[in-house]
Amino acid sequence: MKRSPAIAGVLTALTVLCVATTATAQRGSAAMREKRRAYNEQFVNKPAPPFALADLSGGTARLEDFRGKVIILNFWFSTCGPCRQETPALMRLYDVYRDQGLMVIGINLDEILIPQHEGALMGKFLKTFGVNYPILVADRKVFDAYGGVPVQPTTFLIDRDLTVDRIYWGAFPGSAFDRSVRPLLAGEAQLPKAAGAPSRP
Do 77 and 110 contact (CB within 8 A), yes or no? Predict the structure, then answer.
């Protein structure tokens, strides 16, 4: 059966469009992988950048205050969909391991990423989820110190000596955090990473 010139032309155009779209996606994916590699290289196996940030009670919390703990440092903002998906897993993780020396710290980026809301959405977020771990409010200094946090959420796993063990680029399930946290809490060598787990440079 012969195709009309018009149909053949449309099919050809669609094929070209699909090829072009795929190539663009591949280039974008490659660019993102390179960005992630460079970000990891900047921080992993190096001391975590120090900070002194306001907490929700009006006090100041410093990274140094948590030396001796295994720290999950989670950068997030209130209208971030993946952040909302990830928060319950972080809460469960904190419940399970807090007595073994795990500290989960949320660093809220609302004042930097969505300043027009003047912080009003953070309270709603925390009330909705009943967040059980400390929340600190990011300033420009910590935002810049942590490389501009190019993806949200971004989570740093920091060992007891305040060295960055690994970085979670985007949202991850609780099981991924669990696999990495347990050996650090026990002082063991790192377990082999499962497929899809965040990698070191």
Answer: yes
Q: How far apart are CA 160 and CA 101, in angstroms?
A: 9
Sheet containing 102-108: which strands, arranged edge to edge? 60-62, 52-55, 135-137, 102-108, 70-76, 154-158, 164-169
In 3D, which of 105, 110, 55 has the Cα closest to residue 79?
110
Cα 108 from Cα 77, distance rounded (Å): 5
Q: Counting beta carbons within 10 angstroms of the beta carbon of residue 191, is it exposed (0 to 12), middle (13 to 18) or buried (19 or more)? A: exposed
* pLDDT 10s digits, 147-185: 999 999 999 999 999 999 999 999 999 999 999 999 999
Instruction: Report pTM.
Output: 0.79
Q: At 140, list the tokens.
A: 């420009």
Positive or negative, the CA dihedral 119, 93, 71, 45 is: negative
Neighbours of 124 (CB within 10 A): 11
